[in-house]
């Protein structure tokens, strides 16, 4: 009887824990990896395949490109806005890898909020995955490094009307930090790692606080950089973790109370069955011994016999 109620309680707790937090940038990376791999149906090496995202993420572009590690090392590749030169290696080593491309479009400031700055271009991402299983989800990223010339990202759609002397390349890290570096040739950023990148400029007036915490991806830069920590995102994650711990503890206490109640009810039922069995036994006649009624047997089961019938 209690099992359906327990299932309802567990489902309700799961729904609360899922809806209590927004989709982070790292979770978005995992989701886009899934949709990018879905576009790789009988893929050919070196061909770019655009993926389709669900309607609730309309405006985000995703694509996948499968390559041999040896080919990437020897020749490099030009992929959307990214130019990857020869001499790029991945860790750990795989025979084939898939480069997943992100273009967050008008979702850029939502998943990568940057107070005090204005985006001149959408956030672009490049993440590498193992191509051994194209149906896999939640894959860990490979760590790619440019050992020779850096990887360049061109932003042809940089908005006009801003002084390019103040424009900076923004590199978003996994831990929510942001690193800045100077723009090259007006609209190009350089990096030695994979990650998410954009071109920004300082705002004259600080924008209102963003509704979601910052998550991120790796990005490598050279010297002369400044960093901004993701304190607000960390405090939100700590609050979510605290609520989850309290909710889990409350659920464990509730389950313990229910278990004790069920055990007590079973014990009472067992005692009642024993009493009923006792009442159904053979009734014995009662007799009065002084002031107390006690049961007596009419006769014994075995009659006593003398050991020796000779009586002197």
UniProtKB/TrEMBL annotation:
The keyword Signal applies. Pfam families: DUF1191. Residues 1-17 form the signal peptide. The chain crosses the membrane at residues 238-262. Keywords: Membrane, Signal, Transmembrane, Transmembrane helix. One of its GO terms (cellular component) is membrane. The keyword Thylakoid does not apply. Residues 205-233 are annotated as: Disordered. Residues 213-232 have a biased composition (Gly residues). This is Uncharacterized protein LOC105163838. The gene is LOC105163838.
